[in-house]
Amino acid sequence: MRTRIGFVGLGIMGRGMAANLVKAGYELTVYNRTRAKAKELEALGARVSNTPADAAADADIVFTMLADPPAVKQAVLGTAGVIEGLKPGAILIDCSTVDPETSACVREAAEAKNALFLDAPVAGSKDAATKGELILMVGGDPETLERAKPVLDVISKKIIYAGPSGSGTMLKLCFNLVVSHMMAALSEALVLGTKAGLSPQTIIDTIMTGVIGSRFYEWKGSCILNRDFTTNFSLKLMHKDLSLIASAGYSLGTPLPVTAAVKELYAAAKGIGNPEEDFCAIVKALEQFAQVEVKRQ
Ligand code: NAP
After folding, report:
1. Which CATH code is given to the segment(s) 170-290?
2. Is-catalytic flag, 172?
3. Nearest protein CA to atom 46 of ligand 1, as residue
C-alpha cells in the first residue's frame, strides 16, 4: 500500500518540500491557513484539506512546517489541529524551528494518540527545499527515523541524527546561533569598510581567500551589494530564532552575551525596516546608524 502523507504549512519552505513529495509519487493531502498558497500543490496533484486535522486523517506520515511555536501550537494542538486527525501508529514530523518545550508538548500529544513523533528542523533555504537538498536534524526514536527515512530522503540530501526527542530542535537552535552571527559580522564589516572608503567586494573577496571563507558570505554578500533583499529566510523568523535561543540559554543557565547583542540588532532591523524581507536586510539598520550604503561600486 502506498504511503499517504499529510503536509501542513505551505510557506517558503513547506511548498517546495510538499511539491517534492507529490512529484515522488506519494499520495499527498495539504493544508495551509491561507488557502490560496495551496493552489500550486493542487495543480501538481495534491488534495487540499480544510483543516490540519483533515490533512492528518488517514495519513501514515504527517509533516508540519510552520512559522513558530504559536503556529505549531495552534495548527497541531488547537481545535481541528493535526492531533485531532492523527491515527494510531502514524508518524508526526515537525520540521518547523521551535523550542524544545514546544517539541515536548507535541510529542506528548502525539503519544497520547498512540502515534510517533520526530522533531526534524532543517538547514538550507528556499533553493534547497525546492531541490530536495535540505539537511535534516532529527530528534527521536531511531526506529521511527528508520521507518520515515524513505520519505525523508525525498526532501533531503543529509539526515543528521541528533539524539533523543527534542535534540533535533536544540541542534537547529545551535546552528542558527552561528548563522545569525555570521550575517551580523558580515554586515558590520561591510558597513565599516564602506564608511572607510574600502570596496565592499574587496572585503568579501578577502574573506573568501582564507580558511574563514564560506559560500554563505559570498551569497549573502552579493545579495547586499546588489541590494536584493528578496526573502529566502525572513528577518522576523531569524529574530524569532534568536529569541528561542536566548530562552534556551536562560533555561539552561548558559549566558549567551554575543547572541544577546546580535538578537537586538535583528530586533532593531525588524523595527525600522520590513520584517518580511530577507534576514540580510539587517545591514540596512547598520547603514542607517552609520549613514552609509553598501553597494556595488
Ligand atoms: P513562512 O514562509 O513565513 O511560512 C510560515 C508558514 O506557517 C505558513 O504556511 C503560514 O501560513 C504558517 N502559519 C503561521 N502562523 C500560523 C498559525 N497561527 N496557524 C497556522 N499556520 C500558521 O516561513 P518559512 O520560511 O517557510 O519557514 C517555516 C519554518 O522553517 C520556520 O520555523 C523557519 O524558522 C524554518 N526555516 C526556514 C528556512 C528558510 O530559509 N526560509 C530555513 C530553515 C528553517 P500562512 O501562509 O497562512 O501565513
Report:
1. 1.10.1040.10
2. yes
3. 34
